[in-house]
Amino acid sequence: MFGKRKDGRQVHDVDPFQKIIPYIMKTRTDSMNMFEETFDCEIIDKYISEKKQDGISVSYMSVVIAAMVRVIAIKPQLNRFVVRGKIFTRPKIWVSFVVHPTLRDDSAGTTIKLAFEGTETILEINEKINEAIVKEQNKSKEKNKTDKLAGAIMSIPGFLIRFVVNFLIFLDKHNALPEAVIEASPFHTSFFITNMKSLGINPIYHHVYEFGTTGIFFALGKEKKVPIVDDDDNIVISKRAGLNVVTDERFCDGLYFARAFRLLKKMLVNPWILEEKLDEKTEDCK
Asked: For residue 217, what pLDDT is reported?
């Protein structure tokens, strides 16, 4: 309304029915779809073990993030978001996740947001994630952009905080939120992921936030052994990890989501294919 968004451009080439959906389902909480998936841990464990022998530390989080970044690069409609009934597409792929300095106490975590082009290999993405985590865990008094933004808001007198937050929401809905705030906000991201596996608990269905543009939220859960039927109709015990997903269905249809997450699962059972650099990502609405 007030100008062009700093974090995306409007998509005009949209099917009429899809275009009217954001006016019917006006909020993300009104348009949430939730589903759960599991994947074979033994394959991921084998990949992580191979990389460890090469002196490279790879985590489940890195594998899931790298796979999702690749999926979005191939299926760019997943990188869309809705503001005031309009559908926008992002120029890059952003991911947000929480890091705790230690899991041995109740210390508060901090949120990291990283940007990717989509053509990176899993090893390049893993290196960027590890560097960001180490930086956060080793920091003393230095704060990242997200912490600084939160600190600045909370330094305001209590009776003004609600006004400031509502004003930021107003600016965001009218495409006037400053670029510096968008860069610092973990809620303006392609997807958010929480690692419940590191806490030793099952995955939750995490809501997608009303503030910001997050339209996909992953929760990675702990691994456990479950009986499954193999290709020869035999019942075998398999080590599986849960992956729960909550999506905003307004920016692409269910068939597109289904095909995209089927592709994600294909990559999770063969992370080696992510070591090949993607020559060119698919552009959204050229």
From this structure: 96
Q: What is the pLDDT of residue 9?
A: 92
DSSP β-ladder status, 93-99 and 86-89: unpaired
How many Cα atoms occupy the beta-carbon half-sphere of 60 within 13 Å? 24
pTM of the model: 0.90
> pLDDT by residue (tens digit) across 195-223?
988 888 899 999 999 999 999 999 999 98
Q: Which helix (H) or strand (E) holds 228?
A: strand 216-229
SS (H, E, C) 235-268: EEEEEEEEEEEEEECCCCCHHHHHHHHHHHHHHH
β 191-195/93-99 pair status: parallel
CA-based nearest residue to 28, from 182, 195, 246:
246
Contacts of 248 (CB under 8 A, 6+ apart): 28, 31, 32, 81, 82, 208, 214, 215, 216
The whole-angstrom separation of Cα 205 and Cα 243 is: 9
Given a contact cutoff of 8 angstroms between Cβ atoms, the answer to whether 213 and 248 are in contact is no
What value does the CA radius of gyration of the chain take, rounded to a whole number of Å?
Answer: 20
Residues of the chain with pLDDT under 50: none
